[in-house]
Request: fold
Amino acid sequence: MKIAFFNIQNIFCRHISLLERNNADNKIGWIEEFETLLIQPNRTQKDYDRMRILSYFLGFDNKAKTSYFTIKNAMGELLLKKGLDTETPKASYLTNWEGWAKVDSMPIDEVPILNKAKVIKEVEPDILILLEVENRASLVQFNRHFLSSKENSPYTETVFLETNDLFGRGIGVLAKKGFDLEYIKTHVNELDDKGNPIFDMDLQEYRFRTSSGLPLDILCSHFANNNYTPDFFVDRQKKQSEYIAKLFVKKQIDTYNHSVFMGTLNAPAYSNAISTMIKNIGLSDITKHPNFAVDLDKGKDAGYYRLGAYRMGVNIKQRDYLMLSNGLFKTIKNCGLVRKGMWYKTQPKWNIFGSINNEKHAASEHPLLWCQLNI
Reply:
């Protein structure tokens, strides 16, 4: 049995605010790279191609990134044109849907969509949990047209639950035949002492039963990220970590042999913000297993261990976790991390898909974590 977790960062479309935030985080590096290429005396065609990509990311052509469109009704069909036409009213049923309209999300290019599927097909898990999925329709279409083929059996269980996320991102669950989803519980309505939701997204619980009758409990969460000030950010993570730790104590997880926790915690394992959960829930991280496999960094970085990285030679900051109860951890046959769909912004570098030539083609900023259990 293979279990996998992947923060896919949306499938077909992503909220504009998230795209803008990503651009802001990378802007300084892009400016430095563009200026270096600009003063370079002899530029190759590859350099010019990179400059075009950087000019797009830096917003030199604002029309290419506009969130406003003008709609025309041509013989019953709606035609879209980029840009805001201030001479027309806002489109609505009163105007027969002609006029300007503002969209909240932008479509993701086909190349990264295909790369998202490639990452998953590298492992071909029996149970797959996906974070940051935009809606159920996208999950169903992705399964039907990108994950299923003659070589790859389809996922028969397809479940999507919305969360507290302001940008509409939810959690998707896919499972193949022989892995029946019996139970789902959400914690979106759990409040802190100030009456605010504890989880920015959610903590969700799933119970699967295999064809052999084995029960399997999986919990998945997404912790607060750096949208907040540093102190508030850490405080949010502490509350979320403490809540999960208490939940696992209540479940007496140490005596239960078939439980898994997975999620994007947005903090390394040594962080004080999540230490309560890491130390007290009685689970073991798959990165600590001797059979944990991953392509190492290229060159001298293969022998380097950056603080907060997954392990030596895997120098990307650990934000994503796949943890198993002691009973399951002992049954691990193989486990690993797939980062072929990630773009390396700076050194170190690692093996990536040939279809990824720049940041725009990356499947996600997160790796896929997986484990194969001998049960």
